[in-house]
Amino acid sequence: MSIAFTQVDAFTAEPFRGNPAAVVVLPRWPSAEWMQAVAAEMNLSETAYLVRQDGGFGLRWFTPAVEVALCGHATLASARVLWDDGHAPPSAPLVFHTLSGTLTATARGEWIELDFPATPPTELPAPEGLAEALGVRLSWVGRSRFDVVAVVDDEREVRAAAPDHSRLRRLGARGVMHTAPAAPGSGHDFVSRFFAPGSGIDEDPVTGSAHCCLAPFWAARLGRNELVGYQASPRGGVVRVRVDGDRVQLGGQTAVVARGELLVDPV
Prior knowledge:
Layout: E1 3-10, E2 19-26, H1 32-42, E3 46-53, E4 56-62, E5 67-68, H2 73-84, E6 94-98, E7 101-108, E8 111-117, E9 122-123, H3 130-134, E10 140-143, E11 148-151, H4 155-160, H5 165-169, E12 176-181, E13 190-196, E14 201-204, H6 208-222, E15 226-231, E16 237-244, E17 247-252, E18 254-262
Parallel strand pairs: 2-3, 4-6, 11-12, 13-15
Antiparallel strand pairs: 1-2, 1-18, 3-4, 4-5, 6-7, 7-8, 8-17, 9-10, 10-11, 12-13, 13-14, 15-16, 16-17
């Protein structure tokens, strides 16, 4: 038995930019151990698994090291694969059943819009060693449901950051969002980077779930509910965000870069 997989670069229209994810559509759920082993073999920041169920699709996400509760870019990639391969028509929103509840994806021309839960941060004292690990002076620190938020005043500090990942690993959070307002005239409203050594990823290229926190944070700071974020990793990617109460709409593009077959049967 062979199982098809597709590799998609998400939050970009250009191949080899944005955040790569593998997508595997299955007839039934295999063991978590099998899905984790495949994700480790793929060695991408996320591998997404889908099974048709309950008027939509069950969706689970795995890094090379752990299963995660929420992932934006692999959901974006999943929507592209389901539409391209004829599993669902793009004329209606896709419904995903996940560890973070029901999520949807809607085709918007060349863009895909995800409906995700907002995870706004709460201001807290900086964890010990955070500023030293990032090598910056922090202007605001908080924590969302999943991550530490580390804010600075100048986007150049975000772009230039070379963090000590061993120190970040000891913070006890899924990851650290490092963010600043974008420079005037850049075409973006805020910039960010996302470091997640505790999840087996030193730096995630473009992180949809982080924007569930960044969107309400920057919307409150900038006084607008519709914003454009740029994640300034070496691959880079654009996330359009719209805050709607306790939900965030995440907009992104995709580029399919590879298709293949897994030759190891699910167990």
